Amino acid sequence: xxxxxxxxxxxxxxxxxxxxxxxxxxxxxxxxxxxxxxxxxxxxxxxxxxxxxxxxxxxxxxxxxxxxxxxxxxxxxxxxxxxxxxxxxxxxxxxxxxxxxxxxxxxxxxxxxxxxxxxxxxxxxxxxxxxxxxxxxxxxxxxxxxxxxxxxxxxxxxxxxxxxxxxxxxxxxxxxxxxxxxxxxxxxxxxxxxxxxxxxxxxxxxxxxxxxxx
Length: 214
Fold this sequence. Notes:
- The protein starts with a helix and ends with a helix.
- The chain has 214 residues and is an alpha/beta fold.
- The longest helix has 29 residues, at 185-213.
- Helix 3 links the parallel strand 1 and strand 2.
- The protein contains eight helices and five strands.
């Protein structure tokens, strides 16, 4: 009986520790790879959240960290195809990103939009890194949402194999707060999904990629 009570008390203590704000804040902070920006060949804005990522990219461009902003045209889904077939259209995320950058003073010739065939960070990374390699680039600033920086940086560095220096920059204008993510349902969802994807990358994806590159 005594042993059962001690075990239960110990379990409750462990659960309480893991639920403490200090641990929760550390879990959020771990996902954010915030690196000091350095002069690079290009600023790469990952597809997805809008407009926080493009705003960060424009700030970096205007601060003189790179002379080019690189975007990816996200794949057209069934809904957009239906709109087109019916003669209607709405701006897609990459078009909104281009529009915001131009409205904030980035010249059209400084913005490059690339095509990609599937909606994943891996396929986007392959397209971007191939483009940069083809033009002889040696460095890039990788802009994405705060919670996405660690995994995105790991993917890009793994695929680049050291040929291109990758510096991660979290978009400061996003809603995700590493020190208080558990107070917001959407942030909780994003953190849990991101940790799942991070574990999958380190336990499976990176080894699969390595075999494919051999």
